[in-house]
Amino acid sequence: MIKALLTIDDMPSKNTPAIVDWLVSKNITAVMFAVGGQAEKYHDEAVYALKKGMIVGNHSYSHPYFSGLDMDACRKEIEKCEDVLEKLYADAEVERKYRFFRFPYGDKGGDKKDSLQKMLAEMKFDKVNDRDIPYAWWREQGHDRDIDTYWTYDFEEYTIRPGNGITFEDIINKMESKSPKNGAPLFEENARHILLLHAHDETEAQIPKYYEKMLTILTDRGVEFVKP
Ligand SMILES: [Zn+2]
Q1: Which residues, 6+ apart, have CB-to-CB distance to 50 below 8 Å?
Q2: By three-state DSSP, how is residue 73 classified?
Q3: CA 212 to ligand 1 center in whole angstroms
Q4: Between vectors from CA 193 to CA 79 and to CA 35, what angle results, nearest 5°?
Q5: How many Å lie between the centroid of ligand 1 and the Cα of residue 63?
Q6: pLDDT in tens, 170-199
Q7: Cα–ligand 1 centroid distance for 59 (angstroms)
Q8: What is the pTM assigned to this prediction?
Q9: Per-residue confidence (pLDDT) for residue 89, from 0 to 100
């Protein structure tokens, strides 16, 4: 049995309600990481996700590389997104039970890593339950202790863009890889995953309903989506 927590980055987008509707129809609860600036633009789409039971976490305000910022700028990026999220939860009239954070690009801040983890703890962010993740590299890289939400498998469907030669078929084939470049094999027996997908309208424009096409492969294979 393969178990997975689904995370979806860079929400909200025009396409977010359609993604949410499909997830609801499959009884999947995703942690959706919002970019604060985008959540101001697509406010109603983000509120819709909350009302439909998705968990919306903090993915910074403007999606910078944290290793390129000083500590003060990092704090402001996180706090400014928090302000947006608090308003979203209030507007949706949904209680905020979890406060999750994901670094843009998974960039944990380079030599500021320890200070940033301390800051996330002080800001009372929650850690997702990753106790069942069995991979040695997960522990070696410290993800088992870090508060931010990293991932064990990145679909990399955001690389499907005009002109760069990567096709949807490449992304689907990669799902069968026994040794993906980043992370753990998707369909290894007894795998435990934190999956990373993105809510990009640009991907929807290339591959309509890409999320449904991809995630149906998982549900057909018996992957159990766990609640956070
Ligand atoms: Zn992102």
Answers
A1: 56, 88, 89, 92, 94
A2: helix
A3: 20
A4: 25
A5: 6
A6: 999 999 999 888 789 999 999 999 999 999
A7: 7
A8: 0.97
A9: 98
